[in-house]
Sequence to fold (226 residues):
Amino acid sequence: MKSTLTRGILLASASTLAVTLSACGSDETSAASDSPAPDSSSSSASESSGSMESSSPMAEPASDEPFGAGCTAVPADGEGSFTGMTDDPVATAASNNPVLSTLVQAVTAANLVDTLNTTDDITVIAPANPAFEAIPADQLQAVLADQATLTQILTHHVIPGRLSPDQLAGTHTTVAGDEVTIEGSGENFTVAQTVTGTPASVICGNVQTANATVYIVDQVLAPAAA
Fold:
């Protein structure tokens, strides 16, 4: 009874962090970690620090959220927002996002809407509107009118499987059957081969839809044969 009463008093006077740690460990570990003064604790203090870091939002991996300066152009709410896009398949989600309106026009012209919406677990490298604006108007219109070429270019932007940011760098086989090489790490990624010859940068990455992970880029990618 005396031991039980003592343990109860210690637990009642401990800090919130100590209570959390005692709930995760055994009674003996809890009692031992609560007893020493803060300055003299060793492994217990180290465990406390680790618990605080893992529960803090600042310590969450960057891969959990969209990243990049271009993300500020995405609507803050509504179906075209990051939250709204998670509920819809990728082509539908893109159609609700004004940043991707030209891409949606191209996907529609190539009759790829249903294909993109019904394919599970893909990664889409999605050119933002300025990426299409960088292509001379006559060249862009010619591509939009050529369904075979347009399909080849658009499917070059689609990679089977959902790639997280730490999986993005590397050479990947695309839905078109060719390869795309992405370089970089962290939140900085580029693709060298583009329609304009200017390397593409990921300006808003790790955007989630119901069936795809989307990386928005500032240039239209070019297949080797395009």
